[in-house]
Amino acid sequence: MELTQFLIKAKTNTYATGGEGGERILVDGSKEFTFEEGGFVYRDRYFGFDPFIGEEVVWQAGEVVWAMNYYGWVVKPMVAAGEVYQFLQKAMWQVETDRPFRGPSHYAEGDFEYHDASQGSVEGFQGKEKILYKGRKVYRLVYHGGLVRSA
């Protein structure tokens, strides 16, 4: 299985499906989603709620091959954070093959709009996402990552 296809499956089968409350709570206070298939293992572990920080890591045959760090927060509390994150889950379902990091470049539903701008490819990338509510920014996230090679 190709890394990009695995990332899409992992992302749509973890946060996009489970959202807040669907993760496992660990002893250190972090929250974690995991997914395994075709020799790959995915882990998304994060701390906090608003703001939050985390990392996604992919292993293949027991070696780390890809990782991403992220930091996000609700910028303006015009709407409940829970509503923002529910909309974010829907955007994460739209993850694209050419950009398997977060959601699509644009997604809208009702009063919410999701925008993601990134540079690079699965090998190395950085980006920013935002959510607008009635045209005003209410959420923001920054991320970066790429391939990891073992010594």
Overall description:
This protein is an alpha+beta fold. It has one domain. 17% of the residues lie in helices and 50% in strands. It is built from three helices and nine strands; from the N terminus they run H-H-E-E-E-E-E-H-E-E-E-E. Strands 1-2-3-4-5-9-8-7-6 form a nine-stranded antiparallel beta sheet, covered by helices on one side. A hairpin with a 2-residue loop joins strand 7 and strand 8. The mean pLDDT is 92.
Quick rundown:
The protein is an alpha+beta fold and 151 residues long.
What secondary-structure arrangement, pairings included, does this model have?
Layout: H1 3-12, H2 15-18, E1 24-25, E2 31-37, E3 40-48, E4 52-60, E5 63-74, H3 81-92, E6 106-109, E7 112-121, E8 124-133, E9 136-147
Question: Biggest sheet, strands in spatial order?
Answer: 1-2-3-4-5-9-8-7-6
Structural class: alpha+beta
Instruction: Outline the biggest β-sheet.
Output: 9 strands, antiparallel
**What general form does the structure show?**
globular
- The number of strands is 9
Helices and strands, in N-to-C order?
A: HHEEEEEHEEEE
**Gyration radius from CA atoms, angstroms:** 15 Å
Q: What are the low-pLDDT stretches, counting only 5+ consecutive residues below 50?
A: none
Instruction: Please report which band the strand proportion falls in: under 5%, 5-15%, 15-25%, 25-35%, 35-45% or over 45%.
Output: over 45%
Task: Provide the residue-averaged pLDDT.
Answer: 92
Number of helical segments? 3
Percent helix, as a range, is 10-25%
In angstroms, what separates the terminal alpha carbons?
A: 23 Å
Integer count of domains: 1
